[in-house]
Amino acid sequence: MSEKISTIILSAQQRLKELLSLYLSEAEGFELLEDYSDFSDIYNTISSLSKCALIVDLENPSAKYYDFIRKVTEDFSNCRVVAVYENPTVDSIVKIMRAGAKEVLSSPVIKGEFFDVLARIKEQLNDDYRKSNRCRMVTVFSNKGGIGKTSIASNLALELARTTKENVALIDLNFQLGDITTFMDLKPSFNISYMLKNLDKLNKDFMLNTLEKYKDTSLYVLADPPYFKQAEDISPKQVARLFEILKETFSYIVVDTDNTFDGKTITALDNSDMVFLVTIVNLPALRNCQRCLDLFEKLGYDNEKVQIVINRYMENDEIKADDVEKLLNKEIYWKIPNNYFSLMAAINKGVPVSEMNASSNVAQSYRELAIHLADTIHRQKLIKKFVSNSVDNLKNILRG
Fold it and tell me: 215 in the Ramachandran plot: left (φ > 0), alpha (ψ -120 to 50) or beta?
């Protein structure tokens, strides 16, 4: 059974809310989540939903309502706004759709027209969900310790959550010496060992309630086991099943592994859309990096899947980025600048670097990396599709 589309009603008219609630009770694939008289709390509610329909009553429209519709549609590609307007004119329809509403219904709302609107929304959201919300999993790996992969994983995951405003899971797969919770100053109630013992119970709600949410963001953290013995009974098969369930819940997964090629690490690498192979610019690290590339080739990973990320890069290093590319026979995907003081201050405080020094070059680099990774070109295509659909809907309304 497919997930129902959560529906929110925003209206000060009790009779309209009761009527729409009645209609929704008969609509297949939709469920009324909440009704509000004002929009003060709606934004936070929408941020936690995977698919959402928002019905806005524009009985006495004000600029604040149009601004709110615009913000919701800009920030949440998984939400469709339906405006209810008494005797809408061409000008009012244009204004509403420019704000971002997907559909306009004339008041009083006719049941048949309402169901037609819901059918279109259901098709659009389910289609977009399949196409654009496919989870992307990134594993941050290095076979050499002390290179900074945990810092990269934690900072990247947070910036992905902030940039995309979608649910992001950060998984600590270093079962012996995981540091994610230390880097983010978290004391989670549950860890990956608990999740793997409860695989039969796992669903979206369980995931979102069990993983540790980082402050007021859409980042969820799954910690490593606190005791070594808890890690001994974890099998690669269990880890693979966990990733399957995580992919049904989150738009992005970022995994921090240990430095060994054991079965659990290989499982993470196999299940990843992209592997960030982290190195620094010195000969021992680059030699280890080349060994990893050779092994990844034997594992059958294509050239696009494995990407080189240089950490602590300095433009005045004796070994230049061009030298690294020649040595590894591979282009560098990203260079994270060296900023010792900002990074150490953040690590010692247990916060991401953007919360310690948001204007630093390293914080900016993580933001830009997240944007690059979020596949902005694809998102621009979805926006164009949204605009095109809005124009088509306007034409249908004008035709009557």
Answer: left
Per the listing, tokens 């709390």 go with 41
pTM over 0.85: no
- Domains, in order of start, for the chain: 5-131 (3.40.50.2300), 134-373 (3.40.50.300)
Q: Give dist(CA 131, CA 395) in Å, integer.
A: 26
> From residue 273, how far is each of 149, 269, 297, 398 by CA, in Å?
17, 8, 15, 45
Q: Which residues share a beta bridge with 84? A: 57, 105
Cβ(158)–Cβ(66) under 8 Å? no
What is the C-alpha to C-alpha distance for residues 317 and 144, in angstroms, rounded to an integer? Answer: 20
Measured in whole angstroms, the distance separating CA 113 from the mean position of its chain's CA atoms is 34
pLDDT in tens, 339-386: 988 988 998 888 899 999 999 999 999 999 999 998 643 444 444 444
The residues pairing with 141 across neighbouring beta strands, listed in sequence order, are 277
| Strand segments (E) across the chain | 5-10, 30-36, 52-57, 79-86, 103-107, 136-141, 168-173, 212-213, 219-222, 252-257, 274-279, 306-313, 332-337
Q: Concatenated DSSP letters for 17-52?
A: HHHHHHHHHT-TTEEEEEEESSSTTHHHHHHT-SSE
Predicted confidence band at 103 (pLDDT cuts at 50, 70, 90)?
A: very high
Does residue 108 have a cis peptide bond before it, meaning omega lies within 30 degrees of 0? yes
